[in-house]
Amino acid sequence: MLFDKPIESITEQDIQALIDTQIDAQKAERKTVEYKQALPGGTDNDKKEFLADISSFANSAGGTLLFGIEEQAGIPLQITGIQVDDVDAYKLRLENMLRDGISPRLPRVDVQPVALASKSDHHVFILRVQKSSLSPHRVIFKDHGHFYARNSGGKFRLDVTELRTAFELSGTIAERIRDFRAERLSRISIGEETPVLLEEQASKIVLHMIPSSAFNPSMSIDIKALNDSSQWDLMRPLVVWDTQPPTSLRFNLDGIVRSAQWTKSSATPTMISTGYVQVFRNGIVEVVDVTILGINGEKKEFLGEVFEIRLLQAVKKHMELLQFLGVEAPVFIMVSLLGVKRYKIERGAYIPSYTDEIDRTDLIIPEVMIDTLDGGNDDITEVMRPIFDTTWNAANYAFSPNYDNDGKYVRRWH
């Protein structure tokens, strides 16, 4: 089906199959799909109508808008296509309209022109809108200021009661994300019901990546796909070293976990766990490490550059993991440092210099949000900068020293 395919893979045949199905059913699916024969015009009313359509999907269950389809009473009749001189320019126009005309800005709307083999120089424009974790969104173009949602009859304007409910639901999602984080950090701190046994007194870095859809009752990922050894690298533990230590993989009540081990030197060498990657059944990823902050915690210092680069690598790798599992953005990224009171951050590896001491036991750094899972290194470093700056602030340093004046990360990583 068209809705199950990546948007860039959709063909004219997929669109025709969708139309045939709905013609046979003689039933309009106005809650999650809408057809229009023409692209938005240049008048203010045309633009407001377009923005209302898109925001109504984002404020409801998400959906798909197809331009270049003749319809009647919501039922598609045939592909007509649209002739546009410069497809890329028009795509950019739509994206700019969405960026400037809806508040808060939508986390993601995919715009895909599909060339028609049956009609030279004609396209169907597909816009795929996700259900937004930041809803409710309103149309702000020309001071319009209204909120919209959708049901089986199409879009409708939210009244005061419906708006109040929408805002309460939005707050509930954010609250559940923060409550989940607080509960997990409490368990990790005291070593209660963690997937592997970690030294209770060891200082720890905890990375949480929480999709906005994680607390949807219908959200469930196929964890069995990660049992294939070819996919194990997607669950790469966070460690200070360049090479990965021995690891093990197993299923558990929460989902699936990959843990890392290290041989502790002593009179009797013993194997200890240095951390793990836990993938929950609802798509949440939890990563815990004790190596970057020092396995024994004797020196109470860590190298800021290594801390940042290893986290950047972990975020990038687990974005790939979420993509593989079919999880969609936006995703909230949270970093916590546990047991770091009196720690200092080393500013340079070659000429050591140190910050002041961190003045509290745990650093619970505010979350950031990433709105795409296929971004490059620059996207990741930009999103992660507030987390890094806040970490350095905790040690009386104004900002991360590893960004230049243009906000570009100056260290090499991959």
From TrEMBL:
Pfam family, one: SLFN_AlbA_2
Organism the protein comes from: Reticulibacter mediterranei
Residue span, Schlafen AlbA-2 domain: 29-157
InterPro entries on file: Schlafen_AlbA_2_dom (IPR007421), Schlafen_AlbA_2_dom_sf (IPR038461)
Name of the molecule in the record: Schlafen AlbA-2 domain-containing protein
Superkingdom to which the source organism belongs: Bacteria
